[in-house]
Design a protein that fits this description.
Helix 9 crosses helix 10 and helix 11 runs parallel beside helix 13. The protein is globular and about 55 Å long. 86% of the residues lie in helices and 0% in strands. The protein is built from 14 helices and no strands. The chain has two domains: 186 residues, no CATH class; 169 residues, no CATH class. The protein has 446 residues and is an all-alpha fold.
C-alpha cells in the first residue's frame, strides 16, 4: 500500500462541487484493492476459519478428556511450543527478513532451516529428556505423553521456519491454504478418535503431530517451485544472519515465556484441574488476538522491503491505530459473550475459566497493539533494547506469579499477565518514537 497524501485528502474535503466524494471513494477503493490489504484480508478470513477449527478442537478435547485430561494435553502442547521457541535461533524472523530482501538466498535458507530444525531441535529434545530422567520430580509429564511432547520440538521447528520462508517470498495464499487444510485434517482425525472410543491424551496429541508433519512437507513442496538450485546449508549465510536472528530469538523466547510460563506455574502450584480451566482462558485470549497477529504477519515483510524510515513509521502508526480500534470492538463483544460461549461450548464445569479470561482482556489489547507497533523496530535491524524489555518483563511476570498464584489462583495469574503486556506496550512505543527521531536527526545531519 502506498503512502497516504494527506494534502490531497484535505483539499478534497473542502471542494464545493461535491467532487470530494468521488475522490474519497477512489482513495478508499485504492486502499481496499491494495496488495497489502488483500493479503491482510485473506489471512484474516483464514484465521477466522482457523479460530473455528481451534474452538472445535478445544471443545472436542475438553469433552473427551475432561478438565484433568485437558490440562495434561495443554501442558504437553506447552512443552513442545516452548521447545520450538527455544530452538529456532531467531530464524523464524530472519528467514522472513532476509528472503524478503533477496529471494536468491532461498535455497540456502531452506537448507539452513532443515539443518537447524533437526540438529538443534534434536539436541534440545535429548537434553530435556536427560534432565527429566535424572530429576524426575521436575518433569510435569511422564511416559509416552512426555515423549510425544518432546518429538514435537524438531517437527514444530521445521514447520515454523519453512512457513516463514513462504511469507518472506510473499506466498501468503499458499501459507494460508496449508494452515487451513492441515488444521482441518487434524481436527477431523481427533474427531474420528473420539467417535471410535480411543481418545486418550496420547492419541489426541499424536493426531496433532501427524497434521504438523503434513504441514511441513506441503510447505517444502511449495517452496521447491521457487528454488533455483537444490537446498544446501550455508554456514556463511547462517553466521551472517545470526546477529539479527539471535536478537529476534531472545525477544521471542522471553515474550513466549510471558505468554505461557504462568500455565506451567499454575500446574505446579494448583494442579491439573485448575490448569485445565486456565488453559481454556488462555486459548480464548489467543483467539481474540488474531487481528493484530494477522496485521503483523503481513506488515513485517512489507516494512522490511521499505528503505525510507519515515515511510516505515507512518505505515506502522496507521496500522497500530487501526488495529487498536478493531481490538476495542472485538474485546468488548467478547467480554459480554464469554460466559454463554463457555457454557455452550465447554459446559458448566468450565465456567471457572471465565473470570481469568475477563482479566486477560486488557492485557490482550496492549499485547495486540504492541505486536503491530514492534514491526517498525523489527524492520530496521531489531534493536537490542527489545530483548531487554521482554526479558525484564518476563522476570517481573514470574516474580509476581510466585506470590499471586498461590494467593489468588488463576485469576491472579491473568491480572499479572495483563500488567506485563501493558508494560511492554508502553516501552515499545517509547523506543519506537525515539528510534524514529534518531534516524531523522542522523539523515538531516548528513
Amino acid at each position: 500500500m502506498g503512502k497516504v497524501d494527506l494534502k490531497l485528502i484535505n483539499s478534497a474535503l473542502i471542494m464545493p462541487d461535491g467532487s470530494h466524494e468521488d475522490m474519497l471513494r477512489t482513495f478508499y477503493s485504492r486502499i481496499v484493492s491494495s496488495d497489502f490489504m488483500r493479503k491482510v484480508g485473506e489471512t484474516f478470513v483464514t484465521r477466522i476459519f482457523l479460530i473455528g477449527i481451534g474452538v472445535a478442537t478445544s471443545v472436542i478435547v475438553a469433552r473427551a478428556l475432561g478438565p484433568e485430561g485437558r490440562g495434561l494435553y495443554a501442558v504437553a502442547a506447552t512443552i513442545g511450543a516452548i521447545g520450538v521457541q527455544f530452538g529456532n535461533l531467531g530464524l523464524h524472523a530472519s528467514n522472513t527478513y532476509y528472503v524478503a530482501r533477496d529471494k536468491k538466498l532461498l535455497p540456502a535458507l531452506v537448507g539452513n532451516t532443515i539443518m537447524v530444525s533437526f540438529a538443534v531441535g534434536g539436541f534440545i529434545t535429548v537434553l530435556i529428556w536427560m534432565i527429566f530422567s535424572i530429576w524426575s520430580k521436575l518433569a510435569p509429564l511422564d511416559g509416552l505423553l512426555l515423549i510425544l511432547s518432546l518429538i514435537w520440538i524438531p517437527l514444530g521447528l521445521v514447520c515454523l521456519l519453512l512457513q516463514n520462508l513462504l511469507l518472506g517470498i510473499q506466498e501468503v495464499r499458499a501459507f494460508n491454504k496449508i494452515e487451513l487444510v492441515t488444521k482441518m485434517f487434524g481436527v477431523g482425525l481427533i474427531g474420528l478418535l473420539t467417535l471410535i472410543g480411543t481418545a486418550t491424551v496420547e492419541a489426541i496429541f499424536s493426531a496433532t503431530l501427524v497434521a504438523l508433519v503434513i504441514s511441513s512437507l506441503w510447505a517444502l513442496w511449495r517452496l521447491k517451485s521457487h528454488l533455483t538450485e537444490p537446498p544446501q546449508a550455508s554456514m556463511a549465510l547462517l553466521k551472517a544472519n545470526i546477529g539479527y536472528g539471535l536478537k529476534a530469538y531472545l525477544a521471542a523466547f522471553f515474550s513466549f515465556l510471558v505468554l505461557r510460563v504462568d500455565l506451567l506455574m499454575a500446574k505446579y502450584m494448583l494442579g491439573a484441574e485448575q490448569t485445565g480451566y486456565y488453559s481454556i482462558a488462555a486459548n480464548m485470549a489467543e483467539l481474540v488476538n488474531i487481528l493484530p497477529v494477522v496485521v503483523a504477519t503481513i506488515l513485517f515483510p512489507k516494512l522490511s522491503a521499505l528503505t525510507d524510515i519515515k515511510e516505515k513509521w507512518n505505515f506502522t502508526k496507521k496500522a497500530a491505530v487501526a488495529t487498536g480500534a478493531g481490538m476495542l470492538l472485538v474485546l468488548t463483544v467478547t467480554g459480554f459473550l464469554a460466559k454463554p460461549v463457555v457454557r455452550v461450548l465447554y459446559g458448566d464445569p468450565f465456567l471457572a475459566s471465565v473470570p481469568p479470561f475477563l482479566w486477560l482482556l486488557p492485557g490482550i489489547f496492549f499485547l495486540g497493539v504492541e505486536t503491530v507497533a514492534v514491526q517498525f523496530l523489527n524492520s530496521i535491524g531489531f534493536p537490542k533494547i527489545i530483548v531487554v524489555v521482554w526479558s525484564l518483563t518476563c522476570l517481573l511476570n514470574i516474580g509476581l506469579n510466585m506470590w499471586v498464584i498461590p494467593e489468588y489462583g488463576i485469576t491472579g495469574a491473568s491480572i499479572v499477565s495483563s500488567l506485563s503486556y501493558f508494560v511492554v506496550c508502553a516501552f515499545i512505543f517509547g523506543i519506537s518514537w525515539k528510534t524514529k527521531q534518531k534516524y531523522e536527526w542522523w539523515i538531516k545531519g548528513k
